[in-house]
Amino acid sequence: MKTHILLLLIFAIFIQNGQTAKILASVYSPSLSHQLAFRPIWHELASRGHDITLITTDPEENAPYKQIDTSYSYKIMEELGLGSIVSQQNSSKTSSFNTYINGLHKVSDYQFGTPEVEFLINNEKEKFDLLMLEVIYPGHMAFVDRFKAPFIGLVSLDAPPVIHRAVGNPTNPILYPDTVMPFTSNLTFKQRVVSFLANIGFYVFSTYFFYPNEDANVAKHFEGYTIRPLNDIQHDMDMLFINVNPVFHKLRPLGPNTIQIGGGTHLKEAKPLPKELEEYLNGSKNGVVYFSLGTNVKSNLLTDDLKETIIKTLGELPYDILWKYDEDITGLPKNIKVSKWIPQQDLFRHPQVKLFITQCGLQSVEEAILMNVPIVGMPFFGDQHKNAQIVLEKEIGLVVDRTNVKKEEFKEKIIKVIEDPKFKNNMKMIAKLMTDVEMTGLEKAVWWTEYVIRHKGAKHFKSYGTTDPFYTYFMLDVVCFVLLVLFIVFYVNWRILNFFVWLVFGRKKADVKKKTN
Ligand SMILES: *[C@@H]1O[C@H](CO)[C@@H](O)[C@H](O)[C@H]1NC(C)=O
Ligand SMILES: *[C@@H]1O[C@H](CO)[C@@H](O)[C@H](O)[C@H]1NC(C)=O
Ligand SMILES: *[C@@H]1O[C@H](CO)[C@@H](O)[C@H](O)[C@H]1NC(C)=O
């Protein structure tokens, strides 16, 4: 018996050794939700014996892998006042945009310059079998040329068109508008024009400004190594993992190198609620409305007007309100309870939670769907407007415009979503579809990661056209040529016809003229 176990153990170690890899993972964005989207993947890979080094702005306590702490990135963003841009209190939008881009650039400079990252870059003996890099910001793709390893791109939402294009996916702006566009399907003419121009705008911006600007950071920190322009490196992506779920998100065709890992990948195991919170929920007479704007929209960024509207509206409701708010606040109506931290996923599992008022961050919306809590959306930025649009289309909630929402409208919508069973029923239906899958997002992510490790890349899955210039991709040259040929043919025919007409009628006329003369 004992030898059996020993043999099994040796066998297990043998198998693990056959597959384990040294992985460098990097999630650049100073945003908790971006970091959380991938955390279960690191845990699962680590438990399968892979050796992970993760560069992260939100290191986790007791993580089973090595972490390089870049949390100072938040400080940099804060010092540049980038919070106010998030809430768009700042009226000068272009200067905000510049500040934002500048801020991202500074963060990248700092991250490359932290001693541990510097050591990775400059230690010639350092080797990795696989790179897993968040690609929504291009800088860290420089590791691809430094370590000459296969490379999986990660995006915590849907990828921008530039990234879809880099792996060979179609990027038609009418059928698949950018993630930050607030419309999804059946675009009006005006929306089509906006989406088309935005697509070109983003492309030009990325290709000629954003990426080259970041090349400067790379040149500074990778001295002595030959690193190609980031615009070129991105085409080496072996696989792309996007946090998309085809039930929630709009369908779009994707190549076999693009894996959709969305649909609650970030969900944690259910835990009992803290006793005090459970008592509060149990004791509520008409049920509880949960209000949270997520981790990126800090409460102190709400305008005074909006704050007043929110408090007045919630105060008049016949429900108890649980508000996740990160500041101290006094003088609230009696039915509002404020808390700085709430275990959201576990809260949603409690039957007394009737409604979720949310900024429509992807992960929050997914949690609400999977636990059947209908939504009133109040989107702020990024993909939130699009998610809110989907909430409306799927009829799993209603949406208010935070820039001019009035108390009556807000209140009406809250009550409607709670009282009309349609919203909850639709949510149940969508949750069923989302969870009836052959493999969960996490299982797919892990399986495909090990696939890339086994085959040292997956370039064979890349479709054509990723480096075609714009005019060949959209067939502009061909269309122009065909139009020109058609024009010439018609023109020549028309001239010939004219000539015959002249032969027959023109000469007769001339004859008539002659005769009368
Ligand atoms: C708006 O942004 C500009 C440029 O970053 C900054 O100087 C200004 O203080 C901001 N204004 C407000 C009200 O936040
Ligand atoms: C878009 O238009 C099609 C065809 O007219 C229709 O079936 C579909 O429901 C529309 N989708 C939305 C989201 O309005
Ligand atoms: C809350 O109610 C549930 C169901 O009635 C019960 O099982 C649970 O013990 C209650 N919890 C508390 C803290 O009262």
Automatic annotation (TrEMBL):
The keyword Transcription regulation does not apply. Keywords: Glycosyltransferase, Membrane, Signal, Transferase, Transmembrane, Transmembrane helix. Residues 1-20 form the signal peptide. GO terms for molecular function: UDP-glycosyltransferase activity. InterPro entries: UDP-glycosyltransferase, UDP_glucos_trans. The chain crosses the membrane at residues 470-492. Belongs to the UDP-glycosyltransferase family. This is UDP-glucuronosyltransferase. It comes from Brassicogethes aeneus.
